[in-house]
Every structure is written in C-alpha cells, then in structure tokens.
Amino acid sequence: MSLIRPFAGLRPASGRAADVIAPPYDVLSSEEARARAAGKPWSFLHISKAEIDLAPGTDPYDAAVYAKARENFDRLLKEGVLARDPEPYYYFYRLVMGSHTQVGLVAAASVAAYEAGRIRRHEFTRPDKEDDRVRQIDALNAQTGPVFLTYRHSASIDAMAEIVTRGKPDVDVTAADDCMDAGGRATPGAVADDGVRHSLWPVRDRKLIQALTAAFDTLERLYIADGHHRSAAASRVAAARRAANPRHTGEEAYNYFLAVIFPDNQMQILDYNRAVKDLQGLATEVFLKKLDGSFSMQSEDAAAKPARAGEFGMYLKGQWYRLAIRPERIPHNDPVKRLDVSLLQDHLLAPILGIGDPRRDKRIDFIGGIRGLKELERRVDSGEMAVAFAMFPTSIHDMMAVADANEVMPPKSTWFEPKLADGLVSHVLD
Q: Does domain 272-392 sit in CATH 3.30.1760?
C-alpha cells in the first residue's frame, strides 16, 4: 500500500472557489463563524460549522448540527456549487501570506501508515473532539478538513512542484468580506481579511501522478503538523467501516484521509504565547524574586519579543521584561524537556504560578502569535490576566525530533500559518 494516492476531489465549480472556501473549522468560534458567513450562502462554514444555521446557543455537538451539515452539503452539490473531478488527481496547493510562500501536495494519505507510525503524531487528542470529527465524516461520507502534514524536503518532489506550478492554476483566489459584487460573489483579485492567497493546480498527467506516488513512497515518514483530531477520527472511521465490510480489500476510500503535505523547509511556525490570570497569591516583588533561580531578567522599554530559543518576553503591571533561561537548566538530550514551552512550564508556570496541568487549568490561556504582542498587553492591561509570556517559535525540526522519539509535545506548542482553507478540496468516501 502506497503512503499516498490520488483521489477524485470534490471541489468548488469553476469560478466558485471564492464563494466557498473558508477558514478551518477549529479556528473560529460559532459566533465568529456566524458573522463570517453572513450573506454568504455558499460559504463552507455552513458545512464545517453548521450550528450557525441553527438557533444561537445550539451545542456544536448536537445531532442536529451534523444533520444540518449534511443538508447544507447536499444543497451545494445539488446547486452545482461543488463538483467532483472525473478521475483521481493530485493537487498542488500554494499559499501566499505576505512575503511567505509554501507549496504542498493535496493527497489521500494512508490510514495504515498512520496507524503503523509512518505518519507521526506529536500531540495528544481529546475524545470529545475526536468524536466530533468522526460524526462529521460519517454524516457527510466525506473528509472536508485536510490534515496538515510535513516531510523532510525532497529535491525530486520540489522539481515536480516547480513544473506544475509554472502553469495557470485552476483556482487563484483571496476572497474578501468587503469585496462582493452586486450578486454577492467575491470580486476577482480581492484581498481577504486574512490576506492569504490560495492557488490550486490539479495534476492530471498520469506519469507525473505515478512519479509523485513513487517519490513519496521513498520517504521514511510524514509528520502531522496540524490535524491530530482529524487523522485520529479518520482512523476510527476506517476501523468501523473495515469491521462492517466483509469484502474489505484495503483499497476503499475510507482507508485514506485527506491531507496537504508541505516540505519542512517551507513551513512557518509562529509563537504560541501564554497568559495567566493571577500570580498564585504572590506579591509582585516576591514573584520577580522567585524567577532568579532559573532565569536572568532585564526590564525593557518596549515589547520584549524573544530573539532566540531560551528567551522569553514577560509583561507584568505595564512593564516588559526579557527573561533568559539559565543554560544549566536546559536538558539538551531530551527532545521534549528542552523545548521553550517545556522550560517555561517546568521552571515558572508549575513551580511558581501553580499551573500543574496546562491542558486543564482554567487559570492559563494560550494566544496565537498571529495576534501579536499587543494582544498580550491588552489582556493584562484589561485586568483579565495578571501576567503574559511571549514565546520564541518552536522549530519544525524540534517538532520532528519529538515525533521521531515517539514523544508528545506540551499543549499549544506550535501555531502554523498560513492556515489551510476548508472546502477547497474534499475527499469523498464512496
């Protein structure tokens, strides 16, 4: 069984991509999704966040939500907004965010490879979030949210990507809320509120498809960057359908999951910052004194954005500080414990602020670096939080090292940008 294979993608019909594509289901709240989808009847948010079409306050995990997702999915199919490609293809997918560009391959990735550890994980999953994705896949009989994978870059794959992306893409859109024509359709060349440009090239050449399959089969492994719940859900769906199918062959669509695969040297990881509601009853002076055991510290006149690994910005009572972990505190031989997110947790958040389990402790919040350090200042200045910490981004190679060691990263260690679009290509499980 190949690591990846082509598939007949379900995609927006010609000229409809800007009407359809939407941010990933898990980066918007129900309220944000409802606002983003207002006046956009074809937005994929009506499928990925179908509670927006039910009464406000509806539980996103209610059975009615999955039924509504199916109803909306069928509507887009019936109206011809979504259409299935006639044959199995791969698709090159380019994302442009500011000066950053990355090109990945949309493919169906092997569930068996995932279960065997050839597609590596680095995060724990939550049962409720897995259950949600299982129910969504079963309701639609399709995987609509791609898993974000990476691999150690390959010159041969790069060369094939370069050949394909020289041509004109089938899709080249950056849809915008405020750039609609009189018919409610996105105007060409509009700038999206997230500023990300999405371009897609189907790979129709059979020899090139075979060459891509063979090139990926030479890779030792793939790594999940984002989408642990989606991949775990795909595995569970495959297991259930395998058990229910006496004629199972291993070639059925449910044995694969929707993925977009980018080379590691094009990945962009932003900081994933922390904020804590209180100082665990400590006076400010006592708290600062306690830091001295593990960190050097100096005050800063401006926002202290970390310049290197082992360095942290801290915002407290209107003042920025630059912290640096003392070198002797870094366990260089441990791929998890040497991460900045672990160093902060093990030497400050847990022993000084009492955050023993950051996955469940309600006193801590995590803030994506895309929001900038001004958001940290706002959260502290408002009184919502007592202290905030700016992190240096985890490197892609550190992430791979954790996965290679079959270990798990602390929660909220990586924030990947740009985000993949939902609705650009879906994988039907027929």
A: yes
CA distance 242 to 162: 38
Q: What is the mean pLDDT of the chain?
A: 94
Q: What are phi and psi of 45, to 5 degrees?
A: -60, -25
The dihedral over CA atoms of 67, 72, 77, 80, expressed in degrees to the nearest 10, equals 170
Q: Can you point out the beta strands (E) in 68-163?
A: 82-84, 90-97, 100-110, 119-120, 142-143, 147-151
Residue type, 41: P
CB contact at 8 A, 108 and 258: yes
Distances (CA, A) of 263 to 166, 186, 225, 376, 397: 18, 31, 11, 31, 12
Choose among 66, 70, 110: nearest CA to 235: 110
Instruction: Work out the end-to-end distance of the chain between its first and last CA atoms, rounded to an integer number of angstroms.
Output: 19
Q: Other CB atoms closer than 10 Å to residue 384's CB: what's the count?
A: 11
Kind plus residue range of the DSSP H or E element containing 340:
helix 340-344
Per DSSP, the three-state class of 59 is coil
Query: Taking the domains of the chain in order of start, what are their residue ranges?
Result: 4-268, 272-392
Other beta carbons less than 10 A from residue 117's beta carbon: 11
Peptide bond into 418 cis (omega under 30): yes
What is the pLDDT, as a whole number, of residue 181? 34
| Structure token digits, residue 237 | 């769906």
For the chain, what is the radius of gyration of the CA atoms? Answer: 23
pLDDT in tens, 85-112: 999 999 999 999 999 999 999 999 999 9
* Cβ burial 189-210 (10 Å sphere, 16+ → b, else e): ebebebebbbbbbbbbeeeebe
